[in-house]
Amino acid sequence: MIISKTPINELFFTKLLDISMRSRGLASSALLFTQFSDYIDLELCNNMIRSYTNLKKHLYAVFVYTQMQKIGVLPNHLTFPAVLKSVAMLFRIELGKLIHCWVIKMGFDPDVHVNTAMVHMYCICLSVVDGRRLFDEMPDRNPVTWNALISGYVHNRKFKEAIDVFRKMQKAGAKPGEVTVVGVLSACAHLGALNQGRYIHDYIRHNRLRLNVYVGTALIDMYSKCGVVDDAEKVFHMMRVKNIYTWNVLISGYAMNGQGKAALQVFSNMLTKGFQPDECTFLGVFCASNLYVRERRWDKAGEVREVMEKKGIKKVPGCSSIEIENVVYEFKVLRNQSDM
Fold first, then answer.
1. What is the reported pTM?
2. Domain boundaries, given as residue ranges, for the chain
3. pLDDT interval class at 251 (50, 70, 90)
4. Which of 252, 303, 302 is nearest to 277 (CA)?
5. Separation between Cα atoms, residue 80 and residue 112, nearest integer Å
6. Residues 267, 285: contact at Cβ < 8 Å?
């Protein structure tokens, strides 16, 4: 019998690989690539890597990348963006550097999409200096490339550099979009750069960018941290779509600006709208109620607890954290010895 060496059905092989990796582990699953090597082609591997990355199964994506080369299937320019994203999410910078070398060796380093993925990888892996060096060496850039560096600087808490790159992006003629302004607004919020934040808001209006949930929440956060909570409230009411993060940012914004009553009113409205509070919500609410305690307004503080009890919300143990030499230490207030 003659067996045709046509590519294997993608759905069949993906299901087979999924079952094998879940039940037998990665090492045993590598045998599947050897057994079916004659039927596995580049398109199949690229589709699997992209699918696993989109499903946030990043270890599986990297596994496929390593195995495809072992059976002689070489990657192309479509392979690298997805696998580099997974490498970044796994925080495997050494593997990322090996892929970078492979990109250069295969001659894909002029590709803007591959380079953008590498800039993103380096920044997420806290090697923003390498990301910036690669960015500066790129022959071509697109708005996504600029976004990768801006968000990379924000991720590494280099907020002034993020704003500086935004200015250079405009001078270069690249058009900032929603993703761009979210990153820059975050930098403005951390720096308390109100004038720059207002400039970004004007840019959003004049260029008719969408006031989506991400842009709106970033604006609220910026205005709140810059002490202009009235403007934060205006943005909140202009937003058509809100999520739990939007509500949390406004509650915390009122609380940090000493407007406990307004914070608790927003909290009550949030519950009425059917949003389920999370840890960040509680933090904002208790900051607001602490304002009542400080003013000895015990009746109002009691009302907060009563509202939360009626909604079936229980106070979680207090928690604080500090960062020492890049290590975060968490301290919890225990109610009794059984919590230890």
1. 0.83
2. 1-140, 152-241, 248-334
3. very high
4. 252
5. 11
6. yes
